[in-house]
Amino acid sequence: MQLRKLCLVAVAAFVLAACEAPGSRDGGDAGKSAVPDPFPSTYKPYPSQTLLIANATVINGAGALIENGAVLIEGGKIKAVGADVTAPDGATTLDARGKWITPGIIDNHSHLGAYPSPGVDSHGDGNEISGPVTSEVWVEHSVWPQDPGFSRALAGGITSLQILPGSANLFGGRGVTLKNVPARTVQAMKFPGAPYTLKMACGENPKRVYGYGRGITPGGAPYSRMGNVAGYRDAWIRAADYKAQLDKAKSGGGDAPTRDLELETLAGVLSGDILVHMHCYRADEMAIILDISNEFGYKVAAFHHAVESYKIADKLAEYDVCSSMWADWWGFKMEAYDGIPENIPLVHNAGACAIVHSDSEMGIQRLNQEAAKAWADGRRIGIDIPIETAWQWLSLNPARSLGVDGQTGTLEPGKMADVVIWSGNPFSSYAKAEKVYVDGALMFDRNDPAGQPVMDFELGQPGEGDRK
Amino acid sequence: MIRRLIVSLALLAASPFALAQPVAIYGEKVWTGTSQGTISDGVVVIDNGRIVTVGPASTRVPAGTAEVRARWVTPGLISAFSRTGLSEVSGVDDTNDAGADSSPFSAALNAADGFNPDATSIPVTRLDGFTRIAVAPQAQTKLFGGQGFLADTSGLTGSVFRERAFAYVILGERGAALSGGSRPAAWAALRGAFDDVRFFGARYMSHNEGNVLTRMDALALMPAVKGEQLILFQASRASDLNAIMDFKEQNLSLRVAIVGADEGWRVARRLAALEIPVIIDAVSNLPSSFSQLASTTENAKRLAEAGVTVAIVNLDDDSHLARLATQVAGNAVANGMDLDEAMRALTTAPAEIFGMTGLGVLAPGARADVVAWDGDPLEVTSAPSAVYIDGESQPMESRQTKLRDRYRTIDESQRPMAFNR
User: Fold this and answer.
1) CB < 8 Å from A in window 41-100 of B
2) Are the beta carbons of A467 and B90 separated by less than 8 Å?
3) Do residue B380 and residue A376 have CB atoms under 8 angstroms apart?
4) Mind listing the pLDDT tens digit for each residue in B247-272?
5) What is the pLDDT, as a whole number, of residue A3?
6) Which three-class secondary structure state does DSSP give residue B25?
7) Residue range A2-47+106-407, CATH number
8) pLDDT band at residue A36, thresholds of 50, 70 and 90?
9) Which of A48, A278, A464, B7 is most buried, judging by how many CB atoms fall within 10 Å of its CB?
10) Closest Cα in chain A, distance from residue B285 (Å)
C-alpha cells in the first residue's frame, strides 16, 4: 500500500513504475503474430465438470441481464446461457438462488508479480528505468507467480489480467496477459494466444525520472513534455526503418537486419501484432499521442489512468480508443489534479470505450465496487446506464483492449468459462465473489477453505492467506 | 482577491439566516449511535446549531420548520486518521505540508500550522458525509511526527477546533528506519525521549539538546508523557503491538491509541483489556510488508468481537480519499463485522478516541452535524444529499463538481468550454 502510493507520487524513482495502465483494440487473430515467441504459454485449463448454475441473476457481459437464469458450462466453455437452459445428462446442477453470475473480471492494468507483496526492495522488478526507451524488456520476465496478490485478486473475481511494466519510461516494455491461476511458472499463466502489448507513458513520470532524476536515475532526455514527444517519434522512426528492412528481407530484397530487441517490439506495433497501452493522464497529451499514432501508422489500444478522458470523450470515441480508469483517484500528482468521480460514465456516455482498472493490489480485489461507484455517480447526474451494460467496463472492454474478446469477456456460448458467482448484486459493498471459475475449473471457493489457494510465501507464516 | 472577499462576506451574511430556522431531517432509517439505535421512519430536528429532537417521524416539530427527506440519516461522519487539508497535490512538494524531511524538529511540529481550509480535498471529503477530521502529520525525520489536530470540514477559517489533539509516533519498520535502522533503535529513542521529558528541568537547564529531543520537541511531547494528551502510535506487527502494550503497562497513565494494527486481531484480547482503541484500514489483507503477514479482511470483525474500540479509515490515500472509509467499512461488514459496529467505527469510535464530545451521535443536545443520504451510507452506490455542520447547511459543491458540470456536455460550437461555469 505504502509502496503503491510512493510509486504514484514518484518520490523514489525506482518505485515509480507501478503506476501504469494497458490498452484496447479489436480482438481475434491472436497467435498468428509474426513476432517470435520464445516463451510460449504452457497454460492448460484444469479439469472441469459439466455444470449447470441455475436460478441466478445472470449478467452475460454482452449487455443482457437474465432474471432467474442459468449458465451451462461444458468442457471448460460456456455452452448455454438463458432462462430456459436445462442440465444435460450427467451434469451437476448448482442451485444459485439469490446469487448473481457474471463473466470473470479482467483487470487490464496490474503490476502483480512484478511489484509483488511483500513490497521489499528485492521485489521491485516492475520497471527497467535504465533508459527512457526500454521496449526490449518483457515484464513477464519479472513476474513472480508466488505473489499472494494473485490469490487475493482471484477472491475478488479476477480471472484474467494484464501485467504491465511501470511508467518511468517513454517505452516501458512489453506487457503480458495472464489467466489468474496459481502456477509455478509465468508461462503456465500466460493467456494462450493473447497478443503482446507495449507499455508507453506520457507526462510527468518520464520527464521526472530522466530529465531531473535527482541523481538516482540516469539523467538526460526527456526533461519536458516536448522532450517526451521527440523521444517517441525518434524511436518510431528507427522502428519504421527496421521494419522496412525486415519486410524487404522477407520479400527477398536483402539481408535481414541484426536482431534488435528494442526495435523488434516497436516494429511489432507497426505491423499491428502488438497492442499499445499508454499511461496518459491529461486530455491534451492524449490528443497529441493520437496524432503521433496516425503519423506512424499504429493504433493506441487504450489510454491508462486517463483521468481527463471526460474532457475529450468525443475525440476518444471518434478514434475508437479505450480509456482505462479509476473510479475516483485524484490529486496525488499534478496531472491527476482534475480527476473526477464521473469520468467513467462520462466517457461511456460519449460512446467511447470505458474500462475500470486497478493499478493496485488492493483495488484489484474490488473492481466491481469501483465500477459500482462510477455507475452510481453517473446516475446522480442523469446518466442512467443499466448494470448489465456497465459490466462491460469490467470484462468485455478490457478483453477487447487486450485482443482476447474472441475468447473471454462475456458468457457467450463457445467462450472460455471464466465465471463468477456472487453472493448478491455485485454493485453492492456487501457482495462477495463466492465461486470463481477459470476455464470452467473452480479456482476459488469462499465457503471451502480447501478451495482457496495459498501461495508459497504465505505458507507457514502467521497468516496463510486472507482469513487464516 | 476582491472576488474572494465578496464571497466571504456573502457567507458571513448567510450564516445567521441559516441558523435562524429549525430543520427537520426525515429518514426512512435514522442511525443514532445511541441507545435509540436505528429508528425506522425517524426524524432529527436541529435548531441553533444543536440537535433538538431525535424520534419517530410522527414527532411534532415547531411551526416554520424546514423539511428535508432522505433514505438514511446519520451523524456527521468522523475521519479518524487522515492528512486531509495538509496538501493540495500530494506529489507537488510546494503544496505538501504533511511532513518535513529536513526540519531539525520532530515532536514539536504542529500539523495545524499546515492546515489549509481552502484545500480542494476538504469539500470532496465533506460531500461524502465527513464533517470532522482528525489530521496527523507525517513522520519523516524521527519516529515523532509531531502534533495532530481536529477540524471540521466546513472549509471556513477557524475550522480547526482542537490543535495538538494528539502526539503522533510511528513504530514498526518505518519507525525503525527513522531511528537509525532497527526496532531496538526506535525503542531506545522512544524511551530516551520520555526520559528527556521527565527530567526536562535538569536536562535542558544549560543546553537545548536532550539525549533524543531538542528542548522544543521535549516541551511539545510533555503533555503526552504526562498522560494529558493522546499518543497515537502507528504499528502493525503483533510483536510491535505487544511492545506498545508493554510500554503502556509500564506507564499506566499514558493515553494510547494505535493506527494500522493489521495484526491487531492476534492481540485483540489484550488490547481490549488495556482499553487501547485501534484505527484500522479494514481491507488491508495482504502481506504488504513483513509486518503485515497476518493481515486479514476479518481484522475489524475479530477486534470488535473481542471488545476493542475500532475506528475505520482508508489508509490507501489518506489525504484526498479519506472519504472512502465508508467503502472500507462496508467491506468490513461484508467480512463479518456487525453493521452497527461498522457505523460506530465512523462515528462514536473516533469521537471517543479523540474526546470529541457532542459529536458522532444523533442525540438531543449534541452538535448538529447531520448527514442525509440517498441510501445506506456503507453502500458504494450511496451518497449524501445534504450535510449539516453545527446546524449549517453545507454547499454540496467542490472543484470536482464544477469540472464535472463544465464537461457534462461537450459543445464548442458557439464558444470555448472555458466559458462554462
Assistant:
1) 88-92
2) no
3) yes
4) 999 999 999 999 999 999 999 999 99
5) 34
6) strand
7) 3.20.20.140
8) confident
9) A278
10) 6
Residue pair B307/B342 in contact (Cβ under 8 Å)? The answer is no
In angstroms, the CA B217 to CA B210 distance is 10
Reply yes or no on whether the pLDDT at A29 is more than 50.
no
Give per-residue pLDDT as tens, B272-320. Answer: 999 999 999 999 999 999 999 999 999 999 999 999 999 999 999 999 9
pLDDT of residue A34: 58
pLDDT at position A346 over 90? yes
Contacts with B, A 97-136, CB within 8 Å: 117-120
Q: Which residues make beta-bridge pairs with B233?
A: B169, B258
Q: Report CA A31 to chain centroid distance, whole Å.
A: 19
Look at residue A216 and tell me whether its pLDDT is greater than 80: no
In CATH terms, the fold of domain B77-359 is TIM Barrel (3.20.20)
CA angle, residues B263, B264, B265, in degrees to nearest 5: 95
Rounded to an integer, what distance in angstroms lies between the CA atom of residue A204 and that of residue A227? 11
Cell, residue A420: 463468477
Contact A331 B319 (CB under 8 A): yes
Determine the Cα–Cα distance for residues B146 and B93; give it in Å rounded to an integer: 19
Q: Is B89 in Cβ contact with A429 (below 8 Å)? A: no
Q: Using a CB-CB distance cutoff of 8 angstroms, which residues of chain B are in contact with residue A330?
A: 320-321, 400
Report the phi/psi class of residue B365: left, alpha or beta, with left for phi > 0 and alpha for psi in -120 to 50.
left
- pTM comes to 0.94
Which residue from B88, B290, B374 is facing A118, i.e. has the nearest CB?
Answer: B290
CB count within 10 Å of CB A247 equals 14
Domain ranges for chain B: 2-75+380-404, 77-359
CA distance A390 to A386: 6
Beta sheet of A105-110, edge-to-edge order: A105-110, A158-163, A171-179, A197-201, A275-280, A300-305, A322-325, A353-356
User: Which residues lie closer than 8 Å to B252 by C-beta, 6 or more apart?
Assistant: none
Is the pLDDT confidence value at A15 over 50? no
| Residue burial A69-103, b: 16+ Cβ < 10 Å; e: rest | bbbbbbebbbbbbeeebeeeeebeebebeebbbbb
- Global ipTM: 0.94
* Reported CATH class of domain B2-75+380-404: mainly beta
Inform me whether the C-beta atom of residue A386 falls under 8 Å from chain B C-beta atoms. Answer: no
Name beta bridge partners: B257: B232
The pLDDT, as a whole number, for residue A6 is: 37
Report the C-alpha gap between A146 and A68 in whole angstroms.
38
Give A342→chain B minimum CA distance, Å: 7
For residue A220, what pLDDT band results from cuts at 50, 70 and 90? confident
- Written as nine digits, the cell of A45 is 485449463
Residue spans of beta strands (DSSP E) within A326-398: 353-356
- Asked if the domains B2-75+380-404 and B77-359 are classified in one and the same CATH topology, the answer is no
Q: What is the mean pLDDT of residues A72-84?
A: 97
CA distances from A64 to A347, A376, A386, A389, A409 (A): 21, 19, 9, 7, 13
**How confident is the model over B187-215, as a mean pLDDT?**
95
In 3-state terms, what secondary structure has residue B289? coil
User: What is chain A's mean pLDDT, rounded?
Assistant: 92
Check CB contact of A431 with chain B, cutoff 8 Å.
Answer: yes
On chain A, the residues whose CB falls within 8 A of the CB of B290 are 118, 120
Mean pLDDT of the region B44-64? 96
Chain B closest-CA separation from residue A454 CA (Å): 12
Cβ–Cβ contacts within 10 Å for residue B27, how many?
A: 26
If pLDDT is split at 50, 70 and 90, which confidence band does B20 have? low
Residue of chain B nearest A342, judged by CA positions: B404
Shortest alpha-carbon distance between residue A194 and chain B (Å)? 29
